[in-house]
Amino acid sequence: MISEKNIERAKNEIKKTQKPIVVLAQDDKYNRAMLEYGKFQVLLSPEKNTGKGKLKKQESGLNHVLAKIAAKNGIAIGIDVEEISKLPKTEKGERLAKVRQNIQICRKAKAKIKVFNFTSKQQAFSLMLSLGSTTQQANEAITF
Question: 56 pLDDT band (50/70/90 cuts)?
């Protein structure tokens, strides 16, 4: 997993690392630059480093432009279930709302989703369905 905050250093690490390559999401500028670079497989947890958001719309770290770039370059958006499960209740609810919005955006843009660190495939499948994904999206998310 690449968690480098500097864009150029992260690109150099991607060149050195063997596949599958997972890049930990940072701010919007970083995420866009990395998605446009596109030589990795998964952008993990774009909803993690976002602010509160507005009343009608959450700032989920992903928008339709980034989702289309990810779909074009064959990059999946990653969801870390273990990290979400360790959060306090209020933060967990906010994070799941952001994940739900990201799932809807990915469905519209035809971007792939991958789920990481789940205890069983059935639990991950059920979580994806309860967050609003289609059965096809949920199946693709839990298979590697």
Answer: low
Per DSSP, the three-state class of 43 is: strand
Peptide bond into 88 cis (omega under 30): no
Residue 124 resides in a domain: yes
Q: What is the pLDDT of residues 112-121, one digit of tens each?
A: 999 999 999 9
Q: Would the pTM count as exceeding 0.85? A: yes
Token reading at 89 = 């209740």
Q: Which domain range does residue 130 map to? A: 7-142
> Per the domain annotation, does 2 fall within a domain?
no
Q: Count how many domains the chain has.
A: 1
Q: How many CB atoms are located within 10 Å of the residue 40 CB?
A: 23
